[in-house]
Here is the input.
Amino acid sequence: MSSRLINWFKFSSPVAFYPLAGRLGAWSGWIAAILIVVGLYMSFFVAPTDYKQGEGYRIIYVHVPAAWMSMFIYVVMAGWAGMGLVFNTRLSSMMASALAPTGALFAFLSLWTGAFWGKPMWGAWWVWDARLTSALILFFLYLGFMALQASIDEPRRADRAGAILALVGVVNVPIIYYSVQWWNTLHQGATIKMGGGASMDPVMLWTMLIMTFGFWAYAIAVAMIRVQAIILERERNTTWVTELVKAGGKA
Here is the structure.
């Protein structure tokens, strides 16, 4: 058992994690492409028409998974940032930095698709609804995390400052999730509840899950590619990076 733990701990080093990130990124990229193509096909051509919202509801197959991913990635990002702050591990902070742009992308996508969904359903592109407002705050937290790190030249200080912001901001995630229960909002309640099953057609549910796993695989693929770039940037003066560059980038 101890030998297995030692083998896993070796990947906390950037030099050991770099080739693993390349393999994870490649496999996740292919998985993401397949799942997203299948999910989009099911969204437009297989899933039944909603009896209340008609064909316009189909945007939920992008909107809902994007919203889920924006919250999930923030929690994971804050976890990595917290580990970097507590244990002073370089790779943890690099992973947090690598996840932030993808989380911001999904947060923006959820807001954008939500506006397109809300216009025909609510008659407005935007309302200061509790869930919408807290989701907008999440988007700004991602932007703030990236801007704060970019504004500090010394990487270690930038990582510490970003970690504090990420950990403070994580309180917003349960607010987003429970906002429809805590306040009277226009936003509909959850159709898939933790531990409570789902109140939707099975085909709709499978389509939603396939898109979610596709977005999940995409997030892993992009984060792995980005963390490789961050590792090379921060470790550029080390011997192993110099040898890697001479070898043509193959680890």
